[in-house]
Amino acid sequence: MNGTPSKLGRSPDLGIRPGEEPLTLAWADDRERQQVISLAASEGRQTMNLRTMPYAKLVVLRRPQGGFAGWAGMDADSDPKCPEVFSQYVYREYRGRGLAALLEHVSWAWLDSRGCRTAYMRTEQDSSGGLFKRGRASGYCRQVFLAVDVRTALAASIAARGPLDIDALPIRVGSERI
To answer: Dihedral, CA atoms, 18, 21, 27, 31, nearest 10 degrees?
Structure first.
């Protein structure tokens, strides 16, 4: 895959049915970062943070034949007083399997490792209704530009999925429910 846009909301078809393939959770390299920017733009998603925050981290869920099942960005350096989680996206055919929660887990673990106690996550009820409702119901999010208590969110992630060693990335994950 070379960053070519696909049908809106669908991961590029690579001949493997989604859910039947192991994925690799990894930090994106520069080439993958550019691919995600292109794909995010083709999905009508914001790309500003990935384009303007050179030290922002990007984690991807790689498909074995190339391409991605999803991705998420995080930054603690551009504005240390306002660390941020952004651009989280999982393709439709991979949703409902816990992959978005896994991407969030990476974000909370990375931000915690950087000493961040509060991080901010933008969400819109129209495009991220589930995320918005889950965040509000959890008690760790306090507003629409969600202020997230990183340690509480990380503890909830660990309780739900077990510990995650972000220094061990890349790691293989099944694309079935995790």
So the answer is: -70
Question: Which pLDDT tens digit goes with each residue over 122-163?
Answer: 765 545 556 556 666 766 654 457 889 999 999 999 999 999
3-state secondary structure (DSSP) of residue 19: coil
From the list 95, 34, 45, 49, the residue with the least C-alpha distance to 70 is: 95
What range defines the domain where residue 97 resides?
22-174
Distance, in Å, from the CA atom of 30 to the CA atom of 140, rounded to the nearest integer, reads: 33
Peptide bond into 170 cis (omega under 30): yes
76 close to 111: Cβ distance less than 8 angstroms: yes
pLDDT score of 128: 54
- The 8-class DSSP code of residue 93 comes to G
Domain count, the chain: 1
Q: Domain of 82: which CATH number?
A: 3.40.630.30
For the residues 117-121, what does the mean pLDDT come to? 93
Beta carbons within 8 Å of 141's beta carbon, 6+ residues apart: 121, 135, 147, 148
Give me the phi and psi of 36, to 5 degrees please: -65, -40
Report pLDDT for 122. Answer: 73
Residue 177: predicted pLDDT: 56
